[in-house]
Amino acid sequence: MKPSFEEIITLIQNRNIIQLGLENMTGFLEEIGNPHRKLKVIHIAGTNGKGSTLNFIREMLLEAGYQVGTFTTPAVFSYEEQISINKDPISKENFVEVFQHLTPPRETFEQREQVVLTEFECLTAMMFYFFAEVRPVDFVLVETGVGGRLDATNVTMPLLTVITNIGRDHMQLLGESKEDIANEKAGIIKRGVPLITAEEDEAILANFKQHTADKKAKLYALHHDFAISDREVGKANQSFSFVSPFRKVDSLQLSMLGEHQAKNAALALMTVDYLKTYQALMIKEDDIRKALKNATWKGRFEKVSERPLIYVDGAHNREGVAALASMLQDHFQEKNINVLFAATKEKEIEAMLSPLYEIVNEISFTSFEFPRAALATDLFQQSSFTNKRLVEDWQDEIEHQLSTLKEGDLFLITGSLYFIGQVKTFIIEHQRDHK
After folding, report:
1. Are residues 345 and 239 in the same domain?
2. Which residue has the higher pLDDT, 357 or 333?
3. Is the confidence at residue 24, as pLDDT, over 80?
4. Which helix H or strand E contains 403, and what residues bound it?
5. Residue 121: which region, alpha, beta or left (left: phi > 0; alpha: psi -120 to 50)?
6. Which of 52, 226, 272, 385 is the most exposed place for a label (fewest CB within 10 A)?
7. What is the three-class DSSP state of 220?
8. What is the residue-wise DSSP string for 306-336?
9. Does residue 208 share a domain with residue 109?
């Protein structure tokens, strides 16, 4: 009997272990005909901003009329969204078909090699096969899962590599220092394949320069080879000019807020400029302007309610929270900001949240249904913020806020992307039920 989509998800999630290394991935892709070699891939790594940068690139390519596949993790709102085509998740029917088609060769490979492919390896192989054999596309934008050097996605030979930035996250896997983490991320650099980065730490940039020199690859770095200027901040948008080795574009409009999003957009613009110059990409300036102005990204300072004013943001490490705090100062200084926060167990809560302490009125700590979710009491105890609360039931807290928030208040729900996904679903359902 044909398994259902839900049964297949359970089967895959039972393989939810982290197993860094490329040997199994390389071997299994060989087993199924090396579909990844048929694709035009842009490979994206970095601590923060991968999803937003990928989305800016995707929006511009789509506006120019190209077919675009994407691979992003983790799943936030639906499992199948991790493999998407033109912003639409792979259909459940296609997901089941691809999984079933790859099951016999996977079982043969695992039995012969005495190995078990992880959930992420299975999804990566499914993604490569889907875009190569089932639904061919012009470009595939691929996010790394963890790190880069030993990430399952690093079997690809891309047109370009992009590293957004380097921060302290996944330290238990990638190393204690930013230099260690940078070395892991730089592992996606391939011989002769250019690297585009928005990293601003000169020591890390020196690291990238060494890696690209060793691989005879060109490096394009923000502030050195491309830049943003004339940035202006509005209530609900921002504008900036962009200059690269190939051109200058003035007065670009972004709906996504924060200087970090302007930098992510610049990364995407540099990527598109390179493709236009060296890969014959056909894209007009009007396509670029329209795409950037309309671009949004789920879970990244996303407005989920206008009245009352509620935002969700998946700031799940110290650099992400610092960018969030800077954006709040730019755009919402006049607001009374209360925060609901939940995180996974491995986070350094005090270092992570301290950028918010001088900006927000109150922080409420909670937990959520997830195997690695931290206890609310642990989060509460780790934070030195004075005006803090302990919230046992986040659904009750959101319902309370929805009924009591006043004009001038902003309710911000942030932390783990897994938490943000649950929250957004809850708020959408609540608003639908109370219309």
Report:
1. no
2. 357
3. yes
4. helix 394-404
5. alpha
6. 385
7. strand
8. TTTTEEEE---SHHHHHHHHHHHHHH-TTSE
9. yes
